[in-house]
Amino acid sequence: MFRRKGFTILELLIVIAVIAILVGIALPRFKGMQDEGNIAKAKGELRMLQTAIESYKIHYDALPVALTNLQTAVPQIAPSVIPKDPFGGANYGYSKAGDYFVIYSAGPGATAGSASIGATGNDAADTQQCIYVTNGSPIDTTP
Fold first, then answer.
1. Secondary structure (DSSP) of 80-134
2. Total domains, the chain
């Protein structure tokens, strides 16, 4: 009995279809993992910047005007280069009012995520998925 070597076109099409289905299932999971990694990175960097701002406040009895003031004023704590927001690559947002501040990342939505702070420490939140740290009261995102 004669046996051919190789695959038939039908077998190859089935293998390609199975691979395409597996790739289709895996790609959304990779995007979710990337967002989770960026969220963790943003939270860590925001905590580091919060520590630097609080140290600046202790040393100078005032909040910095901008995050870039931290580089020269508190080089022991502040990073040599202020990190960029992993969502969009722009700078982290910073807002201050009186003795209160908020530093924020645009978040996974990366569309106009922002936060501001009131002079009494009350936060005004955005409507996007903002990641932030503050020395004021937590942002209320309930509708």
1. SSPPBPTTTSSBPEEEEETTEEEEEE--TT-SS--EEE-TTS-EEE-SS--EEEE
2. 1
